[in-house]
Each structure stands twice: as C-alpha cells, then as structure tokens.
Specification:
With 256 residues, this protein is of the alpha/beta class. The protein is built from nine helices and 14 strands. The strands form three sheets. The chain has a six-stranded mixed beta sheet, covered by helices on one side. The longest helix has 15 residues. The structure holds zinc ion (ZN) and fe (iii) ion.
C-alpha cells in the first residue's frame, strides 16, 4: 500500500506525523500532543477520515490532543499498555503487531525516556517518539541509562535504510553536542553544516535515516574509540563498557 507521510507542526518543536492512505482517504496520526493542527488539516481536506491514533508514551506533548480527537472522530487509539494513555482503545506490549491503514506495525518496547515508551516499525519506517532523535536521544525521565542504551541498540539493529520519524526538531542543537563529542568526525561536520542551512531556511530536518544516525549520532556510537576516549578524557576514567559510555554521554548532554 502506498502511504504518504507528512508532518503537522505543533507547539514550538513537535511534529505530529500524518499518514495518508490515498486509496481509502483514511489517515492516521502519531503522537497528537495538540488536536488543533490535526483538526485544521482534516477541515482543509474534506473527505479524509482520521481512523487511527498511535501513541508512543504518556507525556502531554504526545497525548494532549487525543481526547478531543477521539470526541471528534471514530479513531482507534493505540498506546503502550504500561502507561496511562487517555482514551486508549488498544493496549500494546512488546512484539505486538497491529495493522494500520493496511500497514503492519511491529511494537518495540524502548524504555528509557519513559518506562513504558514504545516505538512502531513498518518496513523501513520507524516512529520512535522521544527515544531516538536525529543526532541525539531523549532525556532519561524514568528509565536508567542501561535501559536507554539497550533500547537504542534495538532500534539500531533495524535495517540501515530505515527512515527515522522522531517527534522533535532538536537536530541542530543535538549536532552542536555531537561535534563537541567528535570534533574529528567528517560526517558530523557535514551534517551540522547542512542542518544549519536547513534551519536558517525554516526547513524540517526529519525524517533521518538509521545509516546517517549510525555515522553521526554519538548516542549510537558509544562503541567507537573516538567517543569512548572523549568520555574517558572528560571523566578521568578508563575501559568503560558501552552502556557506561552511554551513561556518561547522556549526563554530559544534560548539562551541555
Ligand atoms: Zn516525552
Ligand atoms: Fe516529547
């Protein structure tokens, strides 16, 4: 099935991903933190029906619009079983599979940002909320660094050409950190230059690809000598396990 994916901007730096099935004129949204952009889109596109709402985690900027959309439509709300999600119809666990607009999505548990956080994957398309960001990762509000490191490792094992649809436009500030971690990484430098120009022109920097993330995202590169040495140098430590390098990197970014 051909599904068109676009972004509805919300708040200051959120994207509500909109999936459109042109064959049936049904659509779905991911993490509608605000109902208004979705309802404005529906009003501007008569004939389109919102049939599904996918939720990655319980934070307000991801679920804030759900109840209003649920009242205005017949959409089915999918969300993590272990979190409190407003108007949830289908509670999802790790490795569940759901069908949305004719696409099968695998549910992947990715604890770290929150404990119940899930991601949705369909053949080369990853909706990962606030877990993996372009050139960064989510803050650890509920989980441990070890959990987040394991979650990111799981996402990194998906095919290289996977498109990464995360929720926030944080790419530029993430890359400023990434270049501080790896000043000698030419891919990071090139990406920083490109993203700086995109943001100056008001252009969205998403989706990313896993291949590009593996080259430039320091949180996916904790096995790299350059990243480990930088963390060891800052913290005066040696021979850290990758999850410990990740923990130190995340703590550094929190204060960056
Ligand atoms: Zn969040
Ligand atoms: Fe968020």
């Amino acid at each position: 099935t051909m599904i068109q994916i676009s972004a509805l901007p919300a708040f200051t730096d959120n994207y509500i991903w909109l999936l459109q099935d042109h064959r049936t004129q049904r659509c779905a949204v991911v993490d509608p933190g605000d109902a208004a952009p979705v309802q404005a889109w529906l009003a501007a596109h008569p004939g389109w029906v919102l049939s599904d709402i996918l939720i990655t985690h319980h934070h307000h900027d991801h679920v804030g619009g759900v109840e209003q959309l649920k009242k205005a439509t017949d959409a089915t709300v999918y969300g993590p079983a272990s979190e409190s999600i407003p108007a949830r119809d289908v509670a999802l666990k790790d490795n569940d599979r759901i069908s949305v607009l004719g696409w099968d999505f695998d549910v992947i548990n990715v604890p770290g940002h929150t404990l119940g956080h899930i991601a949705f994957y369909h053949q080369g398309h990853l909706f990962c909320g606030d877990t993996l960001f372009a050139a960064g990762c989510g803050r650890l509000f509920e989980g441990t660094p070890q959990q987040m490191h394991a979650s990111l490792s799981r996402l990194a094992a998906l095919p290289e050409d996977t498109l990464v649809y995360c929720t926030h436009e944080y790419t530029l500030s993430n890359l400023k950190f990434a270049i501080a971690v790896e000043p000698g990484n030419p891919d990071t430098a090139a990406r920083l230059e490109k993203v700086t120009a995109q943001r100056e022109a008001g252009i969205m920097t998403l989706p990313s690809t896993l291949a590009l993330e593996k080259l430039t995202n320091p949180f996916l590169r904790v096995d790299e000598t350059s990243v480990k040495e930088k963390v060891d140098e800052r913290n005066g430590t040696q021979n850290r396990a990758p999850s410990a390098v990740f923990a130190a990197l995340r703590a550094w970014k929190d204060k960056f």
